[in-house]
Request: fold
Amino acid sequence: HLLERIRLLPGVQTVESRVVRSAVLDIDGFEEPVIGQLVSIPERYEAELNRLALRTGRMPRLGAPDEALVSEPFAEAHGLSVGDSVRAIINGNWRQLRIVGLALSPEYVYTIGPGALMPDDQRFGVIWLGEEAMQAAFDLQGAFNSLSLTLLRGTDPESVISRLDDILARYGGLGAYARKDQISNWFLMNEIKQLQTLAAILPTVFLAVAAFLTNMVLARLITVERSEIGLLKAFGYRDRDVIWHYIKFVLGIAIIGIVLGCVFGYYLGQMNTRMYAEFYRFPFLLFDPGVQPFAIAAGASVLAAILGVISAVRTIAAMPPAESMRPPSPPLFRRTLLSRIPLLRALDQPTRILLRQIGRYPLRSAFTSFGVGMAVAVLISSMQWLDSINHLVDVYFLQAQAQDVTVGFGEPR
Reply:
């Protein structure tokens, strides 16, 4: 009767009930106890939510309470296949469960057991049984202890969660949560956000370095070819002709880099997609980047190369031909306030030269100091993060050994 009340809540589109409990499993050849998450699936019709991707075998049949589906990672970790059996303590009684199929679930993409820090397919697995068989095993005929809902587009999840908690509070409801807080979804979305951050930061850094190196190399090349540039301008070549010559020079380098980047990028993207599909156990994950990513990457690379060459060529192209054909004038220096300080005058000559260079180019010196400081900060923070993770793992396993219990054993809370 509660399902009808929940279906009538504003914004609710689909409601599906089930039974979810934990059991201790006994796996042949594995000495430690294993936690199994038992989840019911409807036997008379196909589930509307959290549909399983059947990898091999078939679904449990109605009237066969000992038939079960097992998550594929768990089965591979223990060498189980269709036709094998596992023993389980269900509601205080030993039951022999016969595996009739292996499956994957969108709800358990990142399968992590209660109290665990990371997935452990040997000590935690998901087993799906028929709904009527689960209700009979746990004395829940016609009842449920877990709900899944979908909402209409534009519905605020928090308002539905608040009303749902009010309805289920008197029945011992532990609290509803949105999909963004579901464990598998949370881990997967955070991984995608990290990839988005890396995709925004790392190319920017590399392109900035490429533009800087292009500017530095061309500045030296143009300095060497200063007299030739002046001679060409004296014969009638315009400024844009000189600039276009060096732009074509840089474009030749950029095109080679773009071709290499597209080839290696496609290969690495395909390999990365395959790695994610294997780690998160997706039933399928298509790698189809299309033309747009390659076009964006090529355009950004060409733009960075052009920006690097324009700043280097603009100065020399704006000079008159007669001045360009002469060697560059030595820079002019003046005495600064630092040179009048008695304490600095007492320093040796190399030290005074260093301080004078820093004072004459304050912006360049400031950026250099900032870069060194950020590099040191990244190193220190990464080392502290690794030390914290190592300390957390050590404490976790030391406590488990001191209590003489299996890590992650117990009912989920």
